[in-house]
Design brief:
This protein is mainly alpha-helical. The chain contains five helices and no strands.
């Protein structure tokens, strides 16, 4: 997790994603890797993957202290993805 966080803060999103996926696979019941995975995917611009990661975080830890904040991120990402899909469909 520490290495993934370092990469995330350094703007090395692919490396961060690899570390968080490793952490999530190593300990599937941990919620934290999913939140950071969502953040890394979001910063990379992989919005559908970010959305799914944030949902998995809340699925594993529904009573998280930051759950309201994460729900807002999920809602905002859903809107962004919807707008992008609408623009693509219109063209």
């Amino acid at each position: 997790m520490a290495v993934g966080t370092f990469y995330l803060n350094s703007g090395k999103y692919d490396a961060a994603i690899e570390r968080f996926v490793e952490a999530a696979n190593y300990e599937p019941s941990l919620a934290e890797p999913w939140k950071f995975l969502g953040e890394a995917y979001e910063k990379k611009g992989a919005l559908p993957s970010a959305l799914e990661s944030y949902k998995k975080y809340l699925e594993l830890l529904p009573g998280a202290a930051d759950s309201a904040k994460v729900r807002k991120r999920i809602s905002a990402l859903g809107e962004k993805i919807g707008k992008v899909s609408s623009k693509v469909a219109a063209h």
